[in-house]
Amino acid sequence: MGSYSGIDRSVxxxxxxxxxxxxxxYTTKKTSITQQQNAWKDINxxxxxxxxxxxxxxxxxxxxxxxxxxTNEDIVSISPSSKVAEGSYKIHIQQLASSTSIIGGRxxxxxxxxxxGNSSSPLKIRGNFAIVNExxxxxxxxxxxxxxxxxxxxxxxxxxxxxxxxxxEGQELEREGSGISASIIDGRLVLTDTKSGDRTIKLIxxxxxxxxxxxxxxxxREVIQGKEAIFTINNVEIRRDSNSISxxxxxxxxxxxxxxxxxxxxxxxxxLDYKKAEDAVxxxxxxxxxxxxxxxxxxxxxxxxxxxxxxxxxxxGSLMRLHSSLRNLVTSRLATGEDGFRDISQLGVxxxxxxxxxxFDTDKFAKALTEDPDKVMKFFFHKDEEGNEVxxxxxxxxxxxxxxxxxxxxxxxxxxxxxxxxxxxNRRIEDFQARMEKKEEQLIKKFxxxxxxxxxxxxxxxxxxxxxxxxxxxxxxxxNRR
Length: 482
Description:
It is a single chain. This protein is 43% helix and 21% strand. By secondary structure, the protein is α+β, with helices and mostly antiparallel strands. The chain starts with 8 loop residues before the first helix and ends with a helix. The chain has a 5-stranded antiparallel beta sheet, with no helix packed on it. The radius of gyration is 45 Å and the shape is flat. The protein is built from 11 helices and 19 strands.
């Protein structure tokens, strides 16, 4: 193609480039719609985060949580719940709780092929014994000549905890745990009660010397008896089998760590944890400012002389209403009654510019929370006489939900519209490209046919020229003969 006409592939490409100009419009429009869709998806994410931050402010535990301090965390610490009353407790620790242990004598382990023996070497003895804990739960341990000291330890530990399942034959098995763990230390079996306190561990042999062979007979073993914890709280003596006590003061877990010297004590104090509420309000303010700034960027009119400065959603009515409504809902007054906070600025949150950016005065908020935490909670969440949530959080979240609801939210409808528009554009682009392919085929066929026709014309001309030349030659020959 192009050998005779001069219209080659490059000429057709130029013609097709002109024909495809409408495709650029489709592509540009699709890119614009996709950018708008992605911007709204980002707004949806930010509104969801704002919704979650507000939910934290709707939780009573945010404002009623307690913090605990100890004069020495290395000796005694406490973990309070939100239900514990504020107060101060003097604690003196006389004795820590400990667990009962049995330390066996050194076990004679036969030498292996390398002439040495270790905990994994076969003991070459057989027998059985039983372990009975404080509650009377009994486990039986059998061992054979090929079993090692480690095998026996593993067998004891496999029965430390309760088990419900299937035995080796696939039958249902429900077994109580012994609560006794085993270990090997310096060639000795050590049995330890997993529970602390003044508890017993009883060993029953088979009468065949099994306990003797394992160094667990009464003559070889050493028993270290467990002890209960003894301490006083505000001069009231208390005894427990654990060093973590949660049944002495309602809502308070006391962790005993070291024994005090005679006459010494540490003081633990429980008070309101204002920081949790402060952090919750700060998180809301930060997320609100981030959301509003993002919306403003997307709505920016931009500078005509600066490419790309115009916001993707500039002039979008829905986004403009969202921005305006969020600002009004945050700063407008609430009907909380004569004795309630009616404006969030009374809690230290106020605007700093015309766009509605917020700042948070933690000192002002802490003062309000210290003076009347119930009044602060009432501002963020309370119910009217009909039981409807009418606080700051409910009002703001109700509006946000109208946008982000997965059932009938505005953003759901917008996304569906974007998807429909993109789908329609994709169909148009596909149809257009199909037409362009046919157009290109037609041009190739047309100009190829032109080349063929010109080639044939040239061939015919050459033939005619040959005929004329032959006739002229014949006529010249005849003249010469005359």
